[in-house]
Design a protein that fits this description.
The structure is a single chain. The protein is of the alpha/beta class and 229 residues long. The protein contains ten helices and eight strands. The chain is globular, with a radius of gyration of 17 Å. The relative contact order is 0.18. Bound molecules: BIS(adenosine)-5'-pentaphosphate (AP5). BIS(adenosine)-5'-pentaphosphate binds next to helix 1, helix 2, helix 3, helix 6 and strand 6.
C-alpha cells in the first residue's frame, strides 16, 4: 500500500526538517512546493520570475499554478508508491485538488505540527540556508565554523564550503505576514482534514528527534500498524 503523507503546520514548524528525513528513511520522494518554487527562482526560469515577488512578500502563489505543479509531480513514477508533501495544500482549493489527485491511491495521512507563533518567529529568524544546495542550518544552535560540516550536498559545497544566507522571506516582517496568511487561509483548511480518521496532531516544541518519533508514531497509528522506529 502506498504511503501518502501530508505535513501540515505554520512557517517554521519543522515540516521540511521532518519531511526530508521521513522521505529518506521510507524511500519515497519529498515534494516540497517551497523548494520547487525557490529552485525556479534560483535558476531564473519563467516560473521563478513569475513567483519571486509574491514569495518575497510572504504571500501565496496562485492556486492554479501550484495545483498544476503538484499534480504533475505526483503523477511521476517515483511518487506512485507514496510521497511526503511539504507546503501543500495551503488553501481549501488546494485540499480539494489533492483529494482528486489521490482519489485512487490509498489513504492520505495528514499530520499537523503545532508550535506557538513566537517560537516560529525565533526559529525562522535564525534559519540559514546554503545558497548552493538549499541545506538548512540554525544559526542560534551552531557556531559559524561548525556550520560548514552541516552542508555536504554538492561537490561545490564540499570543495568551497557552503554559502549560508538568510531566506529572502525570513525577515521578521515577512514571517509575521506569512503567519497572518497561515491563520487566515491555511488553518481553516486544516479543520477540513481534522475529522478524518487519518488526521493526527503532534507537538513541534519538542527536539527534532522527539518530533521524528512522534511523527513515526502518528503515521503508524493512522495506518493501524504497530510502531517500527
Ligand atoms: P515554504 O517553503 O513551504 O515555507 P513555509 O511553509 O512557510 O515553511 P518553512 O519552510 O518556513 O518552515 P518549515 O515548517 O518547513 O520548517 P523547517 O523544517 O524549515 O513556502 C515558502 C513560500 O512559497 C510561501 O510563503 C509561498 O509564497 C510559496 N508557496 C509554497 N507552497 C505554496 C502553496 N502550496 N500555495 C501557495 N504558495 C506556496 O524548520 C524551520 C527552522 O526551525 C530551521 O532552522 C530548523 O532547523 C528549525 N527546527 C526544525 N525543527 C525544530 C525543532 N523541533 N526544534 C527547534 N528548531 C527546529
Amino acid at each position: 500500500m502506498a504511503l501518502n503523507l501530508v505535513m501540515l503546520g505554520p512557517p517554521g514548524a519543522g515540516k521540511g526538517t521532518q519531511a526530508e528525513r521521513f522521505a529518506r528513511e521510507h524511500g519515497i520522494p519529498k515534494v516540497s512546493t517551497g523548494d520547487i518554487l525557490r529552485e525556479a527562482v534560483h535558476s531564473g526560469t519563467a516560473l521563478g520570475q513569475a513567483v519571486q515577488a509574491v514569495m518575497e512578500r510572504g504571500e501565496l502563489v496562485s492556486d492554479d499554478l501550484i495545483i498544476g505543479i503538484v499534480g504533475e509531480r505526483l503523477t511521476r513514477p517515483d511518487a506512485l508508491a507514496g510521497f511526503v508533501l511539504d507546503g501543500f495544500p495551503r488553501t481549501a482549493a488546494q485540499a480539494k485538488a489533492l483529494d482528486e489527485i489521490t482519489a485512487l491511491r490509498g489513504p492520505v495521512i495528514c499530520v499537523e505540527i503545532k508550535v506557538p507563533d513566537e517560537e516560529l518567529v525565533r526559529r525562522v529568524r535564525g534559519r540559514r540556508v546554503c545558497d548552493d544546495c538549499g541545506a538548512n542550518a540554525d544559526a542560534f544552535e551552531h557556531k559559524p565554523d561548525a556550520l560548514s560540516d552541516l552542508c555536504q550536498n554538492t561537490e561545490r559545497c564540499r570543495a568551497v564550503g557552503p554559502k549560508w544566507v538568510a531566506r529572502s522571506d525570513d525577515s521578521e516582517t515577512v514571517v509575521r505576514e506569512r503567519l497572518k496568511i497561515y491563520w487566515r487561509d491555511t488553518r481553516p483548511m486544516i479543520e477540513y482534514y481534522s475529522a478524518r480518521p487519518t488526521f493526527r496532531v503532534i507537538d513541534g516544541l519538542q527536539s527534532p528527534e522527539q518530533v521524528r518519533e512522534a511523527l513515526v508514531g502518528a503515521v503508524a497509528s493512522a495506518l493501524g500498524r504497530p510502531v517500527a522506529q
